[in-house]
Amino acid sequence: MNEKINSLQSKNSVLDAMVVGAGISGLYLLHRLRQIGFSCQVIEAGADLGGTWYWNRYPGARCDTHSLEYSYSFCPQLQQEWEWSERYPSQVEILRYLNRVADQFDLRSGICFNTRLVSADFQPANNQWHLKLDPDQQLSCRFLLMATGCLSSPNMPDIEGLKTFKGPIYHTARWPQSQVDFSGQRVGVIGNGSSGLQIIPELAKQVKQLVVFQRTAQYAVPSGNRPLDPQEVAQIKADYPGFRARNRQQSSGQLSNVETCQQSALTVSPAQRQQLYQASWQQGGFVFYDTFNDLMTNQQSNQTAAEFIRTKIGQIVNDPQRAKLLSPQHVMGCKRPALENGYFETFNRPNVDLVDISANPIQCITTSGIRLRRDQEYLLETIVMATGFDAMTGALMKIDICGLNGLSLKQKWSTGPHNYLGLSVNGFPNLFTITGPGSPSVLTNMVVAIEQHVEWISDCLQYMAQQGYDRIEASAEAEEEWVQHVNRLADDTLYTSCNSWYLGANIPGKPRVFMPLVGFPPYAEKCRQVVEQNYQGFILS
Ligand code: NAP
User: Fold this and answer.
1) Going from the N-terminus, what domains does the chain have, and what CATH number goes with each?
2) Which of 501, 506, 515 to mutate to test the pocket of ligand 1 (most atoms within 8 A of CB)?
3) Which secondary structure element, helix H or strand E, spans residue 78, and what is its range?
4) How far from chain centre, in Å, is Cα 278?
5) Closest ligand 1 atom to 191 CA
6) 63 lines ligand 1 (CB under 6 A)
7) pLDDT tens-digit readout, 43-66
8) How far is the CA of 387 from the centre of ligand 1 (A)?
């Protein structure tokens, strides 16, 4: 029995808002909704707050957005007082920061931990959502706000024999709370996306032998992580609002301190191109992927960047055979590119093996290791799955959400996510998704995207309260147009040219649809205009 929910429910027989998830979105929603006088409760499946940063606590876990940008901007005092130590914040530091935010705004009192939303049924008679929770409890709310995260539902591949393995199997996105000691062990890692790239160098330092099972080589550039320079911090803090405003003008909502390049990779001479790539490479970070303005729209330009990275890999990795295997061949950036800290160098270590499972796939997991289709078996004591997520829709699809006329969200989205602005779904009144598919979300600095959504939603709820509305829903026409708009923008890029989680292609059976929206500033402007035109595209009643 959850006493916190009970006491709230008895004070207000129907909650104004239920927020699902106590990550960066859920925490800010709770704060904003309290400010506008809403009764609000957050439920969180984890035992503590932090969302992504609570679950992904594997060795090496670190954000790849700059610290001074990956933080809330809503409180001038908070952003002035908080001190980040490095250019890119570690998981530990982000979690410390989120706990400080929770303490400062008394947020813990509004969160029930270890509590899941199992199902939500919309009741049109009274415009309320009827919720069933685990542990078993039922309650009602007027607005249901899904702060469930874009990358929160881990992808555990269905490999034969998974349950028979004698040793532990860890997923990077469900890492144990206590430290794991790998010393003296033979450890296998499956997956080399952003999580794999971070954990592999750390594990290599600890283990006796590390075996990396690679299906697709990954593009990565050095992060250039370093302690923050106090002068640089002081300069940003001297005009933090201006800095934030410049962030919001960037397509990716970040890196305003870097001049965005305005030329094509094909308009400069080969020598100049190399020089510019080299300068970006040395600077470190995502600026490399923005060295030219057409790397994600022109395949020929893209190839020049891809080739530069492959050459670098060839220079870093001593064994030419290995370097070749580590060199990606797909379009750079169509799978989310990564930043690395010593990843490629790790493959010069004598205790690290690289196994190409694209040529010889995993057949099964045995009691004592991993067996490949062509007979080889690797003996292991521990397996680490860095196999990613059922992105963008996975967490929502785990919940039985039922809207008007008995239609479930699973049915509605059976051919891919359909919504308006990534915020609202026709047929599902008073439901909002924070950084949902169809919004810039994962193509953006997540905190910028989250703040924009939380503020838009809370302003909308306040407007509804002031105007006496108690129901809001995206219109079918607005939704249809929006879905087409999201697809059109994606079709003008190279994002759709390979199998990626952006497309749902990493999950067997998931519809292949490009889920995020390209470009933050025009999106934010569209959301502003929608409000200006009395919530154009929404039905309010
Ligand atoms: P990911 O990018 O989806 O990578 C998953 C890896 O597992 C890929 O190498 C994939 O190979 C492999 N894999 C999946 N299923 C497999 C199977 N059945 N057999 C063999 N290999 C399999 O997942 P992630 O690394 O967790 O990253 C997901 C996203 O989270 C990132 O793109 C990023 O947006 C975010 N993230 C960010 C940070 C950061 O800020 N620094 C850190 C971690 C994660 P294929 O490529 O062949 O499918």
Assistant:
1) 3-153+391-540 (3.50.50.60), 154-218+336-388 (3.50.50.60)
2) 506
3) helix 76-81
4) 29
5) 7
6) yes
7) 999 999 999 999 999 999 999 999
8) 5
